From TrEMBL:
Full protein name: 5'(3')-deoxyribonucleotidase, cytosolic type-like
SUPFAM superfamilies (alphabetical): HAD-like
Alphabetical list of Pfam families matching this protein: NT5C (PF06941)
Coiled-coil annotated residue ranges, if any: none
Length: 253
């Protein structure tokens, strides 16, 4: 009986020592710094890594990576050259159709048809600098990048074309990062970079902080509590600073 106790005690002491080595504050800091070194030779000015877990960034697709608004206008004008339209610098409100319905019921219905057509989502042009920024972000040590996008309700072409778009512009390996959801609030992330000003759903508040990506339709929107703004990807974009600041925040938690 005594032997059993002695063996158990020895095991406990051994585990305690191991625990101490791994988890005393100084060792823990060293461990963190060595495990989150940069994967590539990125030349940005990110601070030394000191976070115990990766930063999770959710990247919206339409309006952030892919130019929904530009493509919509181009197609509408090609298809209905004699109808009134809304120039990009007169866009306001997230849903493009709402502004077109204000021009007439028939114009609204035509607008709806534009993005439900086959090929609409696949043919979207990348937003300037978006592909380069997404790649760079994904290469950053300590950062996990996901694509977080909502399909339209008439999903026939949209869902598959969103995958095809990602494959075409970023490559097959990005399929692993794809999150398709109609409710982004239930997705667990640290930052959601999204052009929709008001993102609501089942989780209130969501876990992520909303980085409002500037688009024609949201230029004049006043930021709500906790939101920050990102004015594009080029060339002096603040995106690296925003990530760095969030990383600091989570390392202090
Ligand atoms: P994303 O989550 O990638 O931003 O609403 C479904 C998708 O279509 C969603 O994609 C947003 C985009 N969308 C616009 O950006 N503007 C619109 O007016 C409409 C109807 C959809
Ligand atoms: Mg969007």
């Amino acid at each position: 009986m005594q032997n059993i106790h002695q063996t158990a005690c020895r095991k406990l002491v051994k585990h305690f020592k191991l625990y101490n080595e791994l988890f005393n504050p100084q060792q823990r800091r060293l461990l963190r710094e060595t495990t989150v070194q940069r994967r590539t030779s990125f030349s940005g000015k990110m601070a030394p890594r000191n976070s115990s877990r990766n930063l999770r960034v959710l990247l919206d697709m339409d309006g952030v990576l892919a130019d929904f608004e530009g493509q919509f206008l181009k197609r509408f004008r090609e298809k209905y050259p004699h109808d009134p339209f809304v120039p990009l610098d007169e866009r306001s409100g997230f849903y493009v159709t709402k502004q077109y319905y204000a021009l007439g019921q028939d114009i609204g219905t035509k607008a709806f048809g534009i993005y439900e057509e086959k090929g609409f989502f696949l043919d979207l042009q990348p937003i300037d600098g978006a592909i380069e920024a997404a790649r760079e972000m994904a290469e950053m040590e300590g950062v996990d990048v996901y694509i977080c996008t909502s399909p339209i309700k008439k999903y026939t072409h949209c869902v598959v074309e969103k995958y095809q778009w990602l494959d075409k512009h970023l490559g097959k390996e990005w399929m692993e990062r794809m999150i398709l959801t109609r409710d982004k609030t239930v997705i667990n992330g640290d930052l959601l970079i999204d052009d929709k000003p008001n993102i609501t759903g089942g989780m209130n508040p969501p876990k992520w902080q909303h980085v409002l990506f500037t688009s024609y339709h949201n230029r004049d929107v006043v930021l709500q509590d906790g939101q920050i703004r990102l004015d594009g990807w080029l060339p002096h974009s603040r995106w690296r600073d925003i990530l760095e600041q969030k990383r600091q925040e989570i390392s202090e938690q």
